[in-house]
Amino acid sequence: MSKKTIDHEKVKSLVRELLVALGDDPDREGLKETPRRIANFWRDFIEYEPGKLDTTFGAVKHNQMVCVTGMRVWSMCEHHMLPFWCDVSIAYIADDKVLGLSKFARIAHKHAHKLTLQEQLVSDISEEVREILGTNDVAVLAKGEHLCMTMRGIQTPHRMISSALDGQFHKAEQRAEFFNLVNASCL
Ligand SMILES: [Zn+2]
Q1: What are the sequence ranges of the domains in the chain?
Q2: Which residue among 55, 138, 160, 167 has the highest number of C-beta atoms inside a 10 angstrom radius?
Q3: Per CATH, the architecture of 56-184 is what?
Q4: Ligand 1 geometric centre to CA of 23 (Å)
Q5: How many A from CA of 148 to the centre of ligand 1?
Q6: Looking at the whole model, is its pTM more than 0.90?
Q7: Which residues surround ligand 1, an ion (CB under 5 A)?
Q8: pLDDT tens for each residue of the chain, 187 residues long
């Protein structure tokens, strides 16, 4: 995938224009550095580099469920360009290939660093984990809060939960074990 880059100068000038459109003075002391700070934020957000994602270890047959929970990521809602956070849980049935622990977080952060929706984020994470591990036995759950609902619109704190269950996680037993593990970790 080609690396995304932002037009830092353009973002700076657009933020300056936005401040004017909002009836403020972009040259006043408190706002002077604001366009640069915001452009820096978007650069860090969009150009995020997750590192190596696909370190797997071949091993003896494990046949156990591996579940990593509580991975907090921040993303941006594509409908409102406001932040949302999610606590992401990822599980898979480890057979003869296991995924390095940090890779789960890297994959979650990678897909969170763009304008997206929670549902899309969960699907993207699931797809990448399935691809890397070469198995469909993957479950992803995210529980998040969206500032577009908390601070605007209906202005109500909430938790939104979404999940993508594939392969063996379609079976009642595996599905129940996954949700038990997620609940056991209080997420
Ligand atoms: Zn939104």
Answers
A1: 8-46, 56-184
A2: 138
A3: 2-Layer Sandwich (3.30)
A4: 25
A5: 5
A6: yes
A7: 77, 79-80, 148
A8: 567 899 999 999 999 999 999 999 999 999 999 999 999 999 999 999 999 888 888 766 777 899 999 999 999 999 999 999 999 999 999 887 888 999 999 999 999 999 999 999 999 999 999 999 999 999 999 999 999 999 999 999 999 999 999 999 999 999 999 999 999 886 5
**153 Cα–ligand 1 center, Å:** 10
